[in-house]
Amino acid sequence: MKAAYFDCFSGISGDMCLGALIDAGLPLRDLNRELKKIPLSGYRLTSGRVMRSHLAATKVDVTFRPAAGRVQKVIRSWKDVEKTVLSSSLSNEIKLKGLRIFKRLFTAEAKVHGVAFNRVHLHELGSVDCLIDIFGTVIGLNMLGIEKVFSSPLNLGSGMVSTETGMLPVPAPATAEILKKVPVFSRGVPCELTTPTGAAIIREICSGFGNMPDMEISSLALGAGSRNFSDWPNILRIMIGNMHSAHDNSNGDSIMVIETNIDDMNPQIFEYVMELLYKAGALDVFLTQIIMKKSRPGTKLTALCHRERLETLVKIIFSETPTLGLRFHETERKILDRAIRVIDTEFGKIRVKLSGDGRDITKMIPEYEDCKKAARKLKIPLTEVMKRIGLLNPGKIK
């Protein structure tokens, strides 16, 4: 499994994440192409090499310019963000991951400022910048094939930070709220090192905080922060590699199984409930036909999740179904290493899911949506496209 370890000895911010991913080999042109699927205008994303305390790193900047002949979209509230993202042509997986990060950010801002969630407003340009940082990071991790992210404890910095509403202590209140129960420390320069956006990103994408897991490092990447301190390298370091040890969560981990039997609900509602559960972080949701007492036909709803998502999923099932009780237990699972790759085929570029045991690729499944687009474009049967791609040798795909 391809994993990344975020070494946040100098904190984390959105632009540092983007810089590190570009430094890791993510082509800026490809990232820009994906970001253009979000209906935004009036910005430009650039990157360049800079020095941070004698270390060379990549700096990414979002600059703004008037949208020629067009009215620039105003994005300030959660509804604005949600509407903009859902109207984009990004994949559903990317949309949901990015929106979960934004929801974490808005929730924290609402709590610390004592306002309702739907009344939290971001600065107009700041919200566009935030959109690029968050979705650029999610897209970049996906394009680099990184399936798991781990992180060191976070350096928050110290002192005070100037905001539109005045001076605030470091860490900013929203940052502190987001990072509850996460290992943090304060060391080095008296400056804000971890921003609310950076905190929301790492809190949502990270599978675990602490020491670096056992991994075989294949590349190192450095993303530069905006400030350049003379005696402190203001960078985010990302180490990317493969995990093959017992600590590799792709080979074995613990998950929660939630079950309930339902026999008095309109079956059409199951689709809506399943959609909510997936959106809330369920690993899998499925239905099983069962026979209940007095021979009544019923349906067993089962959801799989990591322990930290358990309470959220339980609340959804209780609120959206007529069930009066749930069963849940912890279990172990074993899964194959998985990665998404874009390959050249006779039908053009097609995404495929590769899986194996960490040494050899043994299975390959073409992405359905890509095959469907190819079939429509070339006017050939979809089954033929999927069959011919499936005949390729997965072991020869890198």
Task: Map the helices and strands.
Elements: E1 2-7, H1 14-23, H2 28-35, E2 43-52, E3 55-64, H3 78-86, H4 92-113, H5 124-143, E4 148-151, E5 154-155, E6 160-163, E7 166-169, H6 173-178, E8 184-185, H7 196-205, E9 206-209, E10 216-224, E11 235-242, E12 253-262, H8 269-279, E13 284-291, E14 297-305, H9 310-320, E15 327-333, E16 337-345, E17 348-356, E18 361-366, H10 368-378, H11 382-390
Parallel strand pairs: 1-4, 4-9, 5-8
Antiparallel strand pairs: 1-11, 2-3, 6-7, 10-11, 12-14, 12-15, 13-14, 16-17, 17-18
Helix pairs in contact: 1-5, 3-4, 4-5, 4-7, 8-9, 10-11
Explain this structure.
The strands form 6 sheets. This protein has a 5-stranded mixed beta sheet with strand order 9-4-1-11-10. Helix 4 packs across helix 5, helix 4 crosses helix 7 and helix 8 runs antiparallel to helix 9. The chain has 11 helices and 18 strands. A hairpin with a 5-residue loop joins strand 13 and strand 14. The longest helix has 22 residues. With 398 residues, it is of the alpha+beta class.
